[in-house]
Design brief:
Number of helices: 9
Order of helices and strands: HHHEHEEEEHHHHH
Largest sheet: 5 strands, mixed
Shape: globular
Number of domains: 2
Distance between the termini: 47 Å
Length: 234
């Protein structure tokens, strides 16, 4: 299992940039540049189609969809991640000539968005990490590569702290993403240091919590952008 792919997706930040753009909070050229730094590209025609078709009255107009064990989100084929656009369909990452292109496809019946607040999602993350840490301690697990059984982040925090969110990101969404990245780094650090599957029963349930945190953060950011775009003077 590629643990990095399980706990991190650059599509999270790409989703936030898209939400910021469609609601007029960030210019298109900044979004395109950010997408390129995240490893994605899309045609100008596609962006024009999104601008024309997206339903900004449907909240959230942009949401992140992440699928995994225990989360049957309804994505087509073997896709495990997508950006759902109200009135448009699904924006799916597709490999083409060694480039990851975002293409628009029809939207199947997806699981509804998660309407947790950032605070509720953060509490869920904290509780899940504490529970996993207690279970690891209770198991009596010890190894030279992981001397302290309490889950520690280690140096992977540097990777997850990499910038990539728009300047207009709502502060509560940014805080939730940072918390989710911390949990993701915890999972990856422990798996890399331990290098075996004896702790999977304690750690793998955290993957669903990480996915939830990322999806909730994007949903919240998109909803906040919608509110801001309707303020007088914009």
């Amino acid at each position: 299992m590629d643990m990095r792919a399980e706990v991190y997706s650059p599509l999270q930040n790409a989703s936030v940039w898209l939400a910021a753009w469609v609601h007029g909070m960030e210019p298109a050229d900044e979004m395109i540049e950010a997408w390129a730094s995240l490893g994605y590209s899309a045609s100008i025609d596609l962006l024009g189609e999104i601008r024309q078709r997206i339903d900004l009255q449907d909240i959230p107009s942009v949401r992140l969809v992440l699928s995994g064990a225990g989360d049957a989100m309804g994505l087509p084929g073997d896709h495990r991640e997508s950006i759902a656009l109200a009135g448009c369909g699904l924006l799916l990452p597709t490999w083409e000539n060694e480039d990851e292109i975002l293409t628009l496809g029809p939207s199947p019946a997806l699981a509804p968005p998660m309407w947790l607040s950032p605070g509720e999602a953060d509490s869920m993350l904290s509780a899940a990490v504490d529970q996993a840490a207690n279970l690891v301690e209770a198991s009596g697990y010890r190894t030279d590569s992981l001397r302290a059984p309490r889950l520690t982040v280690g140096t992977l925090a540097d990777f997850y702290d990499t910038p990539g969110l728009p300047p207009s990101i709502p502060p509560r969404a940014a805080k939730l993403f940072a918390r989710t990245d911390q949990v993701a780094a915890i999972i990856e650090t422990v798996k890399n240091r331990v290098g075996e599957h004896s702790l999977d029963a304690h750690l793998l349930p955290l993957l669903r919590v990480v996915r939830t945190g990322r999806m909730v953060g994007v949903t919240y950011a998109a909803a906040e952008y919608a509110k801001l775009s309707r303020r007088p003077g914009r």
